[in-house]
Amino acid sequence: MRDDVATTGSMKAWRAVLVVLGVLLLLLGASVLIGTVKPVKIAGVALWFVLALIVHDGIIAFVTFGVAFLLRKAGRALPIAALAIVQAGLVVCSVFAIIVLPAAYKKSIGSKNPTVLPLDYGPSLVILWAVIVVLTALAVIGYTALTRRQKNRPSVSQA
Amino acid sequence: MAVVLGRLLGIAFLVCFGTGLYSHFLQEPLPWMVFPTRPQTLYQLSQGIHITAGIACFPLILAKLYVVFPELFQTPPIKSFVGFLERASIAIFVASSLVQIVTGLLNTYQWYPFPFPFKQTHFALSFVIIGSLAIHIAVKLPVISRYWTRSRSFDADGNLLLDDEDLPLTTAGVAAELAETTAEPVGPISRRVDGLTGRLFDWIDSAPPRIETPKQAHVSRRGFVATVGVATAAVVALTAGQSFRVLDAINVFGPRKNFVGPNDLPINRTAAAARVTDADTGADWALSVSRGSVVKTYTRADLESMTLHSVDLPIACVEGWSQMASWRGVRLRDLLDAVGAHPDEDLRLTSLEKSGGYRVTEMGHEFAQDELTLVALELNGDPLDMDHGFPARMIAPGRPGVLQTKWLSKLEVI
Predict the structure, then answer these.
(1) Which of A63, A148, B209, B303 has its Cα between 20 and 30 A from that of B235?
(2) Which residue has the higher pLDDT, A76 or B314?
């Protein structure tokens, strides 16, 4: 049945429409870029494309993959849900780092006027990280305690 | 998993694209375009959603790329010409998406450390991204269709149903397949270990595998989706207060904060940045309103002596922050009537600022004739601050902040 879905005429038609639409939009994007941005600046865009791929695929992805793997190895003794909670804490901390650290840095080198970036980004980020660490620890402790209780008194909890 | 995340990311991209196009055409309308002026918070809503969805893209895109990370190492790296095109389109898709959201975020800080102009590039890349997205969906359509619904993806016990080709190759599997297809005896099969990734994967493989029960796999899948959900909700909640008042109390990380600034309102461009000086706005200042040869000029005292109206309208910036404010000033329609303007005539506005792309702008008649559109003299109960456009500025419903011209000098009916 699955093969039928993949080879039906309507799917082929949809794929063709999407490819044509995609190619047209790509050409439109390229022509807008060429029409409004100087060639040397377009080279700047290309440079940033390459940098984006290097930074993501070369650094962020490897670090994430490495940390996930090490955590998995180190966390063999932990129940998988506890491991998932720790990972979740790390992920949320990292996402905020990516979004907030540039703001903290820009504020430190000065913004265009005092109403741009008026908040205390760095200190707030540290506080948020601390809150996430505490919440993660509480969640792991709570989860472990809960499962231990259920294991110790299986008949009572299921009665 | 890739389908689940891709769906959310695709929606976020389309929302950004749609709201972005709306913002673009408000600033550079085609001749036939007329825009709605109600609700007056329309642009606050559309651009707030644009920026908020853009911020939400960060956790979503990172999660999506994490899920498909192994695809980066498919061997051989290029299988065919079509395969090459597919990988090239993916590379452009990923690179343009990352550059788009990163430079977009930096733009909300008014920070431009990149070697290209923001506005033009952001606009052009939006087409590149949506085009690549269409191609990506076309390529993956069988997979997307296969895993679109829960009932197709899981069996009755909640186990993920994988197609044969989605399962990783095992040495035993390859040996069995070879034995079926060749008469030659098959020797021991070993994985080639060369290069960094080969060695890394070998090291991973050499570790005793942790056997996951279906229940555990379910937990880690659910955990991952929940994590992405929490991260996305958290970044939105702690920044969206810059655009939406209800979240102002928990706006901890937004680049702007409501009520911070002169007249209790943030500023995009200061008078100093626009090179507007006290000499320009002193006693000699007058606003000229013209239609053809009919010209009327008004000093600030003249404007103050006219019938003044009070309206509540937001300043909604292209960079995403918004704040509702109370304005008091002369209704623009009254000034236009005085020079005999017709209701379907548009308006050209000129500011005292010395340079900048928005020194001279045009306003469609739908905004010029709106009863809420004012030449504002006061903001939040006090005379306009110099940085908010003293002696007089435009304020109209549903327009981006850059078009709410400050330091007005000339209004010409066209």
Answers:
(1) A63
(2) B314
What residue of B is the nearest CA neighbor of A100?
B253
Q: Could you report the predicted ipTM of this complex, rounded to two decimals?
A: 0.88
A139 burial class (0-12, 13-18, 19+ CB within 10 angstroms)?
middle
* Residue B353 · residue B360 · CB < 8 Å: no
Is the pLDDT at A1 greater than 70? The verdict is no
Q: Which among B65, B102, B270 is the nearest to A61, CB-wise?
A: B65
Chain B residue at shortest CA distance from A19 = B135
Average pLDDT for residues B193-221, to the nearest whole number?
A: 59
Give me the amino acid identity at B93.
F
pLDDT reported for residue A84:
86
Q: Considering Cα of B231, then B234, then B238, then B239, what sign does the dihedral take?
A: positive
Question: In this predicted model, what pLDDT tens digit does every residue of A103-119 receive, in sequence order?
Answer: 999 999 999 899 999 99
Q: What residues 185-244 of chain B have any CB closer than 8 A to a CB of chain A?
A: 204, 207, 210, 212, 216, 219-220, 223-224, 226-228, 230-231, 234-235, 238-239
Question: What integer pLDDT is reported at residue B159 of this predicted model?
Answer: 65
Confidence at residue A40, expressed as pLDDT on a 0 to 100 scale: 94
Instruction: Give the Cα separation of A34 and A42 in Å (integer).
Output: 8
pLDDT of res. B66: 87
pLDDT band for position B293 (50/70/90)?
very high
Tell me, yes or no, if A153 comes closer than 8 A to chain B by beta carbon. Answer: no
